[in-house]
């Protein structure tokens, strides 16, 4: 079973309202994107995860939130959640710098951000192994670009290899088998620290949006071979 199919089935099983568009050659991708959308708009998964994180931080708004960005529903949902928390009086008007991470082979938001555009033209021939980030045309492009700029944030790319290496580093340092989207965020934050765009004292929330279990084919497991002892 392919990764995209696994993700789509998981989301369907979770009760998300995914649809298959008959005859569309990329229906699996559409399912995944719909799943992320329903996640952000209906059940508020990413914003919910962020609210839980705020609670752990004693309701202190972090300085930076880094999100693996596809269609944008996660980033927009998180921003909306922040507005709702302010309306509830749980946080003030301060906002984290919102940072979008995409892959080099599919980075419409990063390219539009760098060019100062308000809309993100669709990417032709999008190529990335990381299916959650293979979104050549983002539905929420202008909203995302607006909130990234308003928050003083940024948008940057990482390569697929850097994201996969990030996945490995999260596993070995945190014991979490993160999705490669989470690995991309990890690789992105390392670049930002190197560029001194993030101060080591700042509070940074990295959003990992899935489990590596859905990406078995991207992870190679090489086991050391030892000589058999005895009979
Ligand atoms: C695991 C995962 N992470 C991140 C994304 C991108 O999220 P968004 O479309 O909300 O920007 C997706 C989208 O499908 C996804 O499946």
What does this structure look like?
- Helix content is 45%, strand content 9%.
- The chain has 8 helices and 4 strands, in the order H-H-H-E-H-E-H-H-E-H-H-E.
- Strands 3-2-1-4 form a 4-stranded parallel β-sheet, with helices on both faces.
- Helix 4 links the parallel strand 1 and strand 2.
- Helix 1 runs parallel beside helix 2, helix 2 packs across helix 3 and helix 2 packs parallel to helix 4.
- The longest helix has 17 residues.
- It is globular, with a radius of gyration of 18 Å.
- It binds pyridoxal-5'-phosphate.
- The site of pyridoxal-5'-phosphate has 18 residues, from helix 2 and helix 4.
Give a quick set of tags describing it.
binds pyridoxal-5'-phosphate; Rossmann fold; 4-stranded parallel β-sheet; 4 strands; 9% strand; 231 residues
Short description:
The chain is an alpha/beta fold. The chain is built from 8 helices and 4 strands.
Protein topology:
Blueprint: H1 3-13, H2 27-43, H3 45-56, E1 64-68, H4 73-87, E2 97-103, H5 108-115, H6 141-150, E3 154-158, H7 160-174, H8 180-194, E4 204-206
Parallel strand pairs: 1-2, 1-4, 2-3
The structure holds pyridoxal-5'-phosphate.
Number of helices: 8
Widest sheet: strand ordering = 3-2-1-4
N-C termini distance: 39 Å
**Total individual domains:** 1
CATH classification class:
Alpha Beta
Return residue spans where pLDDT drops below 50 for at least 5 consecutive residues. 24-44
Instruction: Please identify the structural class as seen in this structure.
Output: alpha/beta
Shape, per Cα inertia axes: globular
Biggest beta sheet summary? 4 strands, parallel
CATH topology: Rossmann fold
The tally of strands reads 4
């Amino acid at each position: 079973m392919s990764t995209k199919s696994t993700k789509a089935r998981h989301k369907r099983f979770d009760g998300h309202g995914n649809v298959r568009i008959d005859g569309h050659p990329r229906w699996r991708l559409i399912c995944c994107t719909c799943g992320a959308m329903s996640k952000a708009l209906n059940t508020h998964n990413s914003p919910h995860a962020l609210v839980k994180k705020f609670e752990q931080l004693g309701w202190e708004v972090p300085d930076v939130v880094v999100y693996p960005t596809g269609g944008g529903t996660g980033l927009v949902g998180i921003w909306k959640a922040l507005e709702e928390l302010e309306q509830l009086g749980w946080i003030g008007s301060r906002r984290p710098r919102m940072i979008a991470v995409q892959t080099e082979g599919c980075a419409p938001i990063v390219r539009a951000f760098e060019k100062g555009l308000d809309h993100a033209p669709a990417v032709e021939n999008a190529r990335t192994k990381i299916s959650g980030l293979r979104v050549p045309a983002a539905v929420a492009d202008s909203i995302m670009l607006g909130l990234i700029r308003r928050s003083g944030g940024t948008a940057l790319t990482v390569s697929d290899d850097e994201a996969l290496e990030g996945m490995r580093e999260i596993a070995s340092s945190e014991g979490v088998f993160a999705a490669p989207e989470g690995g991309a965020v990890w690789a992105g934050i390392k670049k930002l620290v190197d560029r001194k765009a993030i101060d080591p004292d700042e509070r940074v929330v990295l959003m990992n949006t899935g489990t590596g279990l859905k990406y078995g084919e991207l992870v190679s497991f090489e086991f050391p071979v030892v000589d058999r002892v005895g009979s």
